[in-house]
Amino acid sequence: YGLVGSEMCIRDSDSSDNLAELTNHTPLPEDILTQEETFQRIRTLVVSLSPRRQEIITLKFFGGLRNCEIADILGLDERTVASHLSRGLQDLQRSYASQMQSEITEEVAL
After folding, report:
1. CB 56 within 8 A of CB 81
2. Considering the chain, what percentage of its residues have pLDDT values greater than 70?
3. What is the C-alpha separation between 40 and 93, in angstroms, rounded?
4. DSSP code of residue 48
5. What angle do CA 20, 23, 29 make, to 5 degrees?
6. How confident is the model at residue 8 (pLDDT cuts 50, 70, 90)?
7. Contacts 24+ apart (CB under 8 A), 68-74
8. Residue 35 above 50 pLDDT?
9. Rounded CA separation 27/35 (Å)
């Protein structure tokens, strides 16, 4: 639990149980390679974001923290965290799509 203002930030214990169920299978080697490549692409794209958005997205998706916990750690309003997450994810989506389109264009040209 993290205290944010006068509200409690409660971690949903069921979500981690559901995640364990989803990940409780053995992936195929080619799936592992694809996941690792995608993970590396995303990490590279995250570095292209503003420092604040990098920090928030890293805490959220690589640190597993909730918005209220991030807000508490960084001393921000929870709505500010949500805004940075939303805009940062939009930036990542555009960058990823652009990168993929460039690769497709290069492959077609060969």
Report:
1. yes
2. 79
3. 15
4. T
5. 160
6. low
7. 68/2, 68/4, 68/7, 68/9, 69/2, 69/9, 71/4, 72/2, 72/3, 72/4, 72/9
8. yes
9. 10
Within 1-110, where are the H helices? Answer: 13-22, 29-47, 51-57, 67-74, 78-109
Cβ–Cβ < 8 Å for 71, 82: no
What does the alpha-carbon distance between residue 14 and residue 20 come to, in Å, rounded to a whole number? 10
Alpha-carbon torsion angle 86, 8, 58, 42, nearest 10: -50
What is the three-class DSSP state of 9?
Answer: strand
pLDDT digits (tens, 9 = 90+) for 40-88: 888 899 999 999 999 999 999 989 999 999 999 999 999 999 999 999 9
Alpha carbon distance 32, 29 (integer Å): 5
